[in-house]
Amino acid sequence: MFRAFDIAWDAFWRFVEDDGWAIASHIALSALMSLFPFLIFVTALAAFFDFKNLADETVQLMLEAWPAQVADPIGREIRNVLTQVRTDVLTIGVVLAIYFSSNGIESLRIGLNRAYGMREARSWYWLRLESIGYVVVGAAGLLALSFLVVLGPVLWLAAVRYVPALEPFGWVITFLRYAATSAILIVALVVAHMWLPAGRRTLAEVAPGILVTLGLWLAAGAAFGRYLSEFAGNYVTTYAGLASVMIALVFLYTTASIFVYGGELNAAIRRAREGRL
User: Fold this and answer.
1) Which region holds residue 275: left if phi is over 0, alpha if psi is between -120 and 50, else beta?
2) Where are the transmembrane segments (predicted)?
3) What is the dihedral of CA 63, 238, 24, 217, to 10 degrees?
4) For 143-187, what is each residue's pLDDT tens digit?
5) For position 41, what pLDDT does the model report?
């Protein structure tokens, strides 16, 4: 127990020394600025394949893990932007949408490189192309997962029609929906820790930081949601019309700090194993 505390404490002070708070701020702002271009690209991609109804489901799936007090205002603004689905975005604005979306990936790379103590030797254009590839694959994966989420209830109703005994187990659909959201988070964290920063790490080396990140995200989300339910008026009084944006920014800053700390924790565990703690 004391050894675990020493490692966690070492990770925290390395987080402070590596400018973790400033990097978390950069990640939060980059994530907020890249969210809308990414979803515009997803919407255009869905319209191109005639899956217009999946865009709204994709937004809901992405925000499922956020506290309701944060997700609802941002979700409304996103839907206002995405009400006009334009396929011409794929031919005119796709380059800018993907480029600005990839800025969020690059901010994560900077944070993890600092956490793991790595220096980039790869070319900047190669890193940018890699980030763009993650954006495209992520958009396609979200659309595919949204299609399965939409198709799930339809298949369940058909199954209940032929096997009425399944009707009491309707909670399975809700469980699968939350499982899909959890799978998105876990896969994204594994990919980020293993392949975004310079160097290579095994799944066993990044697993502790990922598990701690998920646990702290759940705790922070619950605490932040509870705080907003009691004191949301403070943001409205202070920031007026910008309250929803500031709430989202504070939430993203919290989650980004936890994300960077997860990388620092993995690095601290590695140092402890090497006998340099």
Assistant:
1) left
2) 21-49, 89-112, 132-155, 175-196, 208-227, 239-261
3) -40
4) 666 666 656 666 666 777 777 777 676 666 667 767 777 788 888
5) 75
Report the C-alpha gap between 190 and 235 in whole angstroms: 34
What lies within 8 Å, CB to CB, of 24 at 6+ separation is 111, 253, 256, 257, 259, 260
* Residue pointed to by tokens 């489901």: 57
Predicted pLDDT at 277: 45
Q: Tell me which DSSP letter residue 6 carries.
A: H
- What string of DSSP letters covers 204-251? HHHHHHHHHHHHHHHHHHHHHHHHHHHHHHHHHHHHGGGHHHHHHHHH
Residue 149: count of CB within 10 angstroms of its CB: 20
> How far from the centroid of its chain's Cα atoms is residue 102's Cα?
13
Q: In whole angstroms, what is the distance from residue 169 CA to residue 176 CA?
A: 12
| pTM as predicted | 0.81
What is the residue range of 104's domain?
2-273
| pLDDT one-digit tens code per residue, 68-101 | 767 777 777 666 666 555 555 555 666 777 888 8
**Residue among 36, 33, 82, 32 at smallest CA distance from 57:** 82
- Residues of the chain under the 50 pLDDT cut: 277
